[in-house]
Amino acid sequence: MSVLQLPRANFHGTTTWDPNTANNSNKIYNEDKALPIKPPGVAWDGFVDWLTDTVDVRGGGKTVRGGWNVYGDHNVIFDQLTFVSAEAADGPATNDPLIGKPITIVSEGFTDRKPGGRLVDVDPYGSTSSQLFFDRIVIGDDDVGVTGHRVTRMYSRWIGSRNLDENGELMIAGPVGVIWQCGLDKDRLEWSANADSSPTLKALRQAIEADPGSQGIVLTFATYRTLYYQTASYKGQRLDDAVKLSAAYKDGFTGGNPAVSVTTGSLGLWGADELSTGPTDRFLVPAQRGSREAALKAVGPANARLDESAGTVTLDMVATVPETDAELTKADLGDLSLQVIPAGGGAPVTIGTPLAYSGYERDAYQRSGGTVTFDLGGADPETVEAGTLQVVSAKYNVAILSEQVLLADTDQRGCYVDQDEEREITVRVYDRGAPVADGKAKVLISQFDSNWSRMTMSAVTPDGKPLNKVVLDVENGAVSFKVKVTQPGIVYLVYTAFPADQTAPVVRPDPQIQGYTALRGMPFDNQLEQNTGDDELSWKFLYENVLRTWDKVYPIMSEVRSLHTKSVFADMAEQVRFAVDPQQFETGWYMPITRDLSAGKRKLILRYLNLLPNRVPPDDDSDTQPFEMPAERAEV
Amino acid sequence: MARIRFAGIATGLAVAGVLGIHAAGPAAAQNLPKLDHLKYITQDAKASKAKALKRPIEYAWDVFFLANWPALPGAKGRGKPDPSKKIGDTGGPMLWQSWKGDDETYPPNGVIPGPWATPYPVPPGGAAKLPPADTGDLWTPLTGNVQADGFDLKGPDGQPIRYHIRLNRPAFEYVRRNKLYSIDGQISFAKANGALDFRWDAIEAKAAWRELDPVKDKDEIPKYFTSHAFYPQRDDDGNITGWKKVLVGLTGLHFATKAIDNWVWITFEQVDNEEWTGVHRVNPIPDKVKQYNAKVQRLLAGTPWENYELVGVQTDFGTEDDPTILANTQIESHFQSRSSCMSCHGMANVKQSEPTPENPVRASYVDPNHGSPPYYVGPIPDLPEGYSHTDFVFSLYRAQYEKN
């Protein structure tokens, strides 16, 4: 199923991202130890102020030392994201009441305010491990719509520099695009009262009910052309550059400075055996990444699905054709032909009519969510089914996409492993969009460092063997293995599927097209916990060894509730105990939002809470007294 | 979707009730209830239960009237209404203010509290010069500035709303007699007896106070019931660096009475809270309550109480699909949509054995299974094994461990 079959609804708008950026720097934050790095000459009391200084950028200009969003809170909002078109089971539903209605993302929260999603990187230094935690997606509204709950968090995929930025208008990650996908659990869909007045939603509901293998609803969307310094203001002034932002911080500004991405996507039926977090249809990968033509080099992947009964092949090109500028003008690649190379070889067969530029230019793209349907025309369905697809650019006379027949990928794209902990990871393998048959494929597991440049050995099997160059046989469409870490830090486990009758290929790690798990070995703090007696577990000890990381590197937390104030922490004891519980890890309640609390330090927090209110040992250099009302008394 | 639901309203709301009210304006003060009409609240279990269930709005205002009856002066007057006074008289503590404070009931290090009739606490260094207050020479100790959800509510001057809890004599004596003033005592009691069970006439009050600046807030002060108050100032490490003595205005007032087994939950607010403390009321006050409030407020004209309104009364959990919701904007500011006094307090508990980090002294009152904000509404689940209910009384959480 997936968004490549009907019914389908397409949406377009923007997403705002408000991540904290201070932990992106290895000069500020030690990723292995999850500790702030205090430079000589800077006092802890001045650390956050130091983060808000401007610093020179190589090549000219200024930036804020802690990045473009020192006070970000990781909130993500689907802002002005609305349905722009809909297709019911039998085609376009131009009057569907869903069109124009919003799509929103909601997380769990501690107050009546409904937070959006939470953007958290497994690897804070890197750009290939973004996760979007959320509770539910609200499609439409209380009148016409459906609310669906997550199965797991979302992950960014297919990262690439998709905007050519020919006018030099974009900064930071402005040209970069990614896609996201989420499956919404079939058993927890809440349909609005008049959901059936939408032909698309009605068809969706009927399709889910009719297909016992259906898993629910799936959304696939691209976020791209990100603009920075667009949203924050202070004392009536727009904070549209780093110098103004820094000055505002110095003057007391503690708000977020969210970035804004254009967002385009589709929703459809989540079919059996499909991943929740990534597309598993036939996978077409960029074929001209070495090209000197910027437009060809920037082409992104696509998915395809043959619908034999409808006599069509549908392509999801939501991340395929690059934009040339901040106005989102689509690169003109000329007519695009979908072709199939027959399994037995021979000349490519063109499927249907080539797609003219007018079919993928900006407005058409945004209106369709990037999906394009080709009639088979004279192409034989069996040839299309068994052959290898490609997309050819008439303007450049080259294939810009070619099918990668085997795909290995996982819903566990982000994984946190504590000291001495074992985690099981399952990787699913697909052959032209369907689960691969037993005996037909194997999976090679490779392991790379956080720069994707060097092989590492710190992710190991439970018996200590490095999970590198390990080959596993596929059974029932998947491989599963257990992993431990020998040291804290980031590694990427990269999965490559290859035919079972061939030798394992040499892997060139490629985060745009390969399935992988960003695995974070959490700080090894078990010894710290074990070596700390209750008589040493004072407030000062807890703050300096545990809480200071988030108080200093993630300062918005202390703007909400002060992490450096003993009484405030004690007053939040009930909520802290709840929020650090690993059972809340997938939820919006989990703390710290950055998800870098080790098991050892979690235990120290729980032990400290257990000593409240008056078994906490005094600080070495303080004369802390419990709250004691005075003995003096009076007649009134 | 939860809705506000007041048990008993449909079966027996009598707007006039005990008040026999028809007149309005200052002259109507004589129609306010007499003390004798209110004594049933602490002397007649059957009548209290019946009225709480059948005419909850009227019962709630009766509790308000009794609790805000001026108390007899001095330590010996604590817990006793002054029959020579009437509702609206000021110049000393009201009856609820003469009850034992949480500071007095749960002393530091779990030591036994003094007996009932001890003199009122005064701030260190003695009284400060402040504008006159409705409570005369009484000094209200402000013992908390955080709500049940761990957040605070900042008033318009940036100062947090501050809180104080008081227990009437039956509640206090139950705590004292059963050694519940320390965590150790609570654990021992639970181990030996299981759940706590306060007497039917136990009452707790929780008051929310806002600091008032005599100059900046001079126009607002007359619309508050005021008191002198004090609280400690601390550094980040918890060390007391001084004591602040201030004029405060009452913004919210909870009462919980054990007229029924699950207690009756009553809450009042100052009428200008939304404007002056900047908190949006999520759940509107039901029309029937508003109508009754309007009549009572006319009778209270010319007294500090004319600016206070009943927000609601809760006498049942409701159901899972239709839970009873009740919130005070000053005390449950940030989780009003999922605030059920009875459900949340129903989770009050203590462990029957020495706590461990994995199994702390209290099982959580945070609900992970039913949405946000994560607090129980509707019927509540069983406690984990090894924990006992503390009869809906959260003030017991103010207790400390005994120090050897």
Description:
The complex is a heterodimer of chains A (636) and B (404). Chain A has 636 residues and is an alpha+beta fold. Chain A contains 12 helices and 39 strands. Chain A has 4 domains: 8-280, no CATH class; 304-403, no CATH class; 407-521, Immunoglobulin-like, CATH 2.60.40; 526-611, no CATH class. The radius of gyration of chain A is 26 Å and the shape is globular. Chain A starts with 7 loop residues before the first strand and ends with a strand. Chain B is an alpha+beta fold and 404 residues long. Helices cover 20% and strands 17% of the residues of chain B. Chain B has helices at residues 9-12, 35-38, 40-43, 45-54, 56-67, 102-105, 169-177, 183-193, 273-276, 287-299, 341-346; strands at residues 100-101, 120-121, 139-141, 162-167, 203-212, 226-234, 240-257, 264-270, 308-314, 349-351, 387-389. In chain B, helix 4 (45-54) packs across helix 5. The N and C termini of chain B lie far apart (50 Å). At the A-B interface, helix 10, helix 11, helix 12 and strand 39 of A face strand 2 of B. Strand 39 (633-634) of chain A pairs antiparallel with strand 2 of chain B.
Quick overview of this protein structure:
Chain A: Residues 616-636 are annotated as: Disordered. With 636 residues, chain A is α+β, with helices and mostly antiparallel strands.
